[in-house]
């Protein structure tokens, strides 16, 4: 009996449990799904503002376009005038008369070693063969040249032997006379720039790179302006960058007119136009600056000859000046020979004669070419180009 009761109780419990599960499942199926929750949107931080934009906006009265008063007519346009570029003032060059005398102190500082050395040797009590050899060495070291040195020593030996006694004053006078004979006092050293009725004076300046040729041309323009001439500059050095600018700057300082062409253009064409412009303007002198071509470049030397031939279609050249660097010594003679073969050199311009140059180069280059030294450069100043004066030069060599 007890087993039956126990079985009934278990059955009731199982039925009750199954009924509860069934009811719960139905309830869950009947409930509608919960609505999705709206996400919270966080506004991005405001951008920082500066000045009036940082203030809180205020309600302002706004007007329509019809209510705004517009100015009558168009606003005036302000046109700015370009700045006026003032021309550089015209300089008045230093007079050329006696210029070398005024520059004598500058010349003597570096040149009188030759004269003092000779005076010291000649003042010895006994002038034996060894002393005369020293005198020869002194002259050769000063770039006088072999043949001029031998001639000078021979004349000095003869005159000293005849004089017998040799006071310092006598020796100085003796040496001055012989050096003047060697340098030459009878050579025509005038730079020919006189205009004629049908043509101006025509001067062509030639030389090797680095001798100061363009600068010398500009300084020569100053020399001519100081003597009352009107000058046209022909920038026929079309191969060196800024050569035409450099020459034009020199010309503007003294009121000279510059004719130039395109960079890398035909130098002969520029030279031809320069002479043509000078004739049309009625100016006195035209100075033609040519390229500083190396004397070893055969083609370039031929071109220099072409420039000369083209210019002479107008009229013959009055001067062909060869610019030499006095510090190059005997090497300058090699340059002089080659240039003389291409164009007929009429005069020499020795630059940098106040530096380490030796005064004997004046004698050597004149002997080599048979033409005189006409101008010498004695410094970097604008008026340091001077006409060559033998007496002033020799006095600077031997000192006071």
Care to describe what's here?
The chain has 400 residues and is of the alpha/beta class. 46% of the residues lie in helices and 10% in strands. Strands 3-2-4-1-5-6-7-8 form an eight-stranded mixed sheet, with helices on both faces. Helix 9 (267-281) packs parallel to helix 10 and helix 11 (331-342) packs parallel to helix 12 (361-369). The termini are far apart. The model has no long low-confidence stretch (mean pLDDT 80). InterPro entries: AAA+_ATPase, P-loop_NTPase, Signal_recog_particl_SRP54_hlx, SR_rcpt_FtsY, SRP/SRP_N, SRP54_GTPase_dom, SRP54_N_sf. Its main location: membrane. Residues 49-66 have a biased composition (Basic and acidic residues).
Terminal residue distance: 169 Å
How large is the radius of gyration? 49 Å
The global form is elongated
Largest sheet: 8 strands, mixed
Which residues sit in consecutive blocks of at least 5 with pLDDT less than 50?
none
> H/E order of the elements?
HHHHHHEHEHEHEHEHEHEEH
Query: Assembly state here?
Result: single chain
Helix content: 40-55%
Structural class category: alpha/beta
Total count of strands: 8
The largest sheet has its strands arranged as 3-2-4-1-5-6-7-8
**How many separate helices?**
13
Overall pLDDT level: 80
Strand content: 5-15%
InterPro entries: AAA+_ATPase, P-loop_NTPase, Signal_recog_particl_SRP54_hlx, SR_rcpt_FtsY, SRP/SRP_N, SRP54_GTPase_dom, SRP54_N_sf
Protein name: Signal recognition particle receptor FtsY
Catalytic activity: GTP + H2O = GDP + phosphate + H(+)
Subunit structure: Part of the signal recognition particle protein translocation system, which is composed of SRP and FtsY.
């Amino acid at each position: 009996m007890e087993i039956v009761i126990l079985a009934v109780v278990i059955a009731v419990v199982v039925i009750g449990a199954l009924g509860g599960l069934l009811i719960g499942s139905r309830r869950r199926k009947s409930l509608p799904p919960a609505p999705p929750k709206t996400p919270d949107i966080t506004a991005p931080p405001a951008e920082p503002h500066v000045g009036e934009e940082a203030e809180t906006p205020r309600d302002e009265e706004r007007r329509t376009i019809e209510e705004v008063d517009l100015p009558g007519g168009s606003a005036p346009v302000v046109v700015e005038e370009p700045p006026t570029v003032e021309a550089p003032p015209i300089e008045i060059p230093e007079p050329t008369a006696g210029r070398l005398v005024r520059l004598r102190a500058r010349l003597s500082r570096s040149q009188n070693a030759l004269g003092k050395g000779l005076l010291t040797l000649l003042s010895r009590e006994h002038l034996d063969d060894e002393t005369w050899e020293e005198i020869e060495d002194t002259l050769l070291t000063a770039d006088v040249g072999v043949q001029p040195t031998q001639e000078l020593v021979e004349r000095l030996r003869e005159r000293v032997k005849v004089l017998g006694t040799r006071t310092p004053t006598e020796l100085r006078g003796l040496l001055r006379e012989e050096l003047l004979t060697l340098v030459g006092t009878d050579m025509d050293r005038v730079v020919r720039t006189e205009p004629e009725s049908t043509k101006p004076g025509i001067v062509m300046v030639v030389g090797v790179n680095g001798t100061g040729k363009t600068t010398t041309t500009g300084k020569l323009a100053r020399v001519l302006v100081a003597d009352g001439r009107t000058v046209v500059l022909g920038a026929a050095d079309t191969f060196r960058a800024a050569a035409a600018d450099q020459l034009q700057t020199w010309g503007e300082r003294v009121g000279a007119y510059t004719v130039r062409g395109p960079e890398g253009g035909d130098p002969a064409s520029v030279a031809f136009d320069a002479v043509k412009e000078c004739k049309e303007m009625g100016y006195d002198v035209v100075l033609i600056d040519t390229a500083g071509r190396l004397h070893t470049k055969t083609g370039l030397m031929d071109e220099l000859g072409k420039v000369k031939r083209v210019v002479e279609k107008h009229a013959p050249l009055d001067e062909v000046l060869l610019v030499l660097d006095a510090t190059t010594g005997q090497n300058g003679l090699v340059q002089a020979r080659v240039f003389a073969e291409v164009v007929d050199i009429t005069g020499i311009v020795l630059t940098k004669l106040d530096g380490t140059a030796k005064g004997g180069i004046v004698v050597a280059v004149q002997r080599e070419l048979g033409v005189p030294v006409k101008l010498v450069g004695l410094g970097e100043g604008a008026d340091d180009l001077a006409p060559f004066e033998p007496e002033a030069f020799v006095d600077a060599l031997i000192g006071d």
